[in-house]
Amino acid sequence: MASKYLAAIKQIYKSYETAKGFCKFASGCRVLSVSEGHVKVEMDVTEELLNPPGTLHGGCTATLVDIVTTTALMATERAHPGVSVDLIVSYLAAAHPGETIVIDASVLRAGRTLAYTRADVFRKKDNLLIATAQHTKAFPASKQK
Which stretches make up the Thioesterase domain (predicted)? Predict the structure, then answer.
């Protein structure tokens, strides 16, 4: 897991433990690996993350994908989170309470103004793909005062 980005990425995830708002969803993430433009985390599906039928909520999955793809972007020389342009998530299977999911995110390409990332979400016990996503991030020009 050694990487020049490891400490910074672990610190980001540690900050989610006391976060308010949507980043609180990531408070249970455990960093598995970090390399240039790539972050892999796991987390347990808890009761707080469920939809009414009792499976991992799709909005939670999308939020986690947003967070993990953004940290993959932070694990690059640019080290800038950018802002979301689009986020496309395809849901393929369910995750249930007590199961562990793995979110594997990578930067496909980062240019001057846009970055393209992807993530796969797996159920750890059987490596079943439960969601796949694409996330485009923009780097707006800074405004002059």
Answer: 54-128
